[in-house]
Amino acid sequence: MNKLLEVKDLQTHFIMKNEVVKAVDGVSFTIYEKETFGLVGESGSGKSQTCRSILGLVKKPGKVVGGEILYKKQDVVKMSKDQLRKIRGHEISIIFQEPMTSLNPVLKIRKQIFEAFDRTDMTKEEKRKKSIELLKLVGIPSPETRMEEYTHQFSGGMRQRAMIAIALASEPNLLIADEPTTALDVTIQDQIMQLLNQLKEELGMSILLITHDLAVVAQMCDRVAVMYAGMIVEMTDTFTLFSTPRHPYTNALIQSLPNQKGANERLEPIHGAPPNLADLPMGCPFHPRCNFAEELCRTSRPELTDLTPTHQVRCHFLNKTVGFKGTFTPDTKQGGCDGENS
Ligand SMILES: Nc1ncnc2c1ncn2[C@@H]1O[C@H](COP(=O)(O)OP(=O)(O)OP(=O)(O)O)[C@@H](O)[C@H]1O
Ligand code: SF4
Ligand SMILES: [Mg+2]
Predict the structure, then answer these.
(1) Can you give the CATH number for the domain in which 69 is found?
(2) At the N or C end, where does the chain have fewer CB atoms within 10 A?
(3) What is the pLDDT of residues 13-35, one digit of tens each?
(4) How close is the Cα of 111 to the center of ligand 1, in Å?
């Protein structure tokens, strides 16, 4: 499999007068062509800032202060605004959690889809035809009429679908979906996920899927990285993550899910609160909440270590976690691709 995106030791910090928040603190992963890669973790763990960094969308006082983001071997971090604009919304598209933040309220849906065709030499009629096709594809009824409407005339589910249509109009190589369904009810969530899966097959694109929801990971992802305190603490293929998790945090996340097929619930918080990223505890950032913590964990930060070539874990005591067994038995994708230690 060919690499599409390589994130190497990414560091995105919010630099304020009195403190520095390390929202992304040395994150590395690779996304291959035609795969769905999941980023999962509690609120505030750095998922959104990771994907914003990829598109040069980190807002001040945030800044990418280190690392590389190689898209087709070119470093996005070093690109000019113009170069980035050529990629954003064209080769890489993003769907945000809340469609209203990225849809334009004063432009008709048609106009917003047309913008994605700006760089093509399509005629107006071709653009119209393609827009109708896309709206149909994402399940918007009577697209000929609906495309002449404004976003406030759409329901939440329809807006999300419209945003997906806009994101797909440029036939991106990579679709970044940042909690694309959290604001929607469960039935619509499921439909949108199925739609993304279907479109991925049809268009042959890769997806970076950010979610709180492990059930969605199980349903959608080939490989997955678990984030905690701005760092990846475990990364492997989805089947291995659910069947033999090896980081205590991943294990706790899995244990907090109902043990039934198809369960679809938000993660229950683990005891204790997520850490303040401006003032991380010494040693392993998870130690105040970890049932396995020892003295070493309080003083020394573990590195992300290869358990196998396709399974990395950030923990000092991997021998203690051998017995972990996922009790959640979703219909996970078996195998995934042969990711390497990136
Ligand atoms: N504007 C900001 N100023 C200062 N710190 C910020 C700002 N935006 C984000 N952060 C910090 O970045 C961290 C990571 O934020 P991010 O949005 O990536 O979290 P997340 O994992 O996407 O969470 P959620 O699941 O709630 O969306 C937060 O914990 C916060 O401390
Ligand atoms: S390093 Fe220590 S505190 Fe951190 S996850 Fe492993 S056992 Fe828990
Ligand atoms: Mg987020």
Answers:
(1) 3.40.50.300
(2) N
(3) 999 999 999 999 999 999 999 99
(4) 32
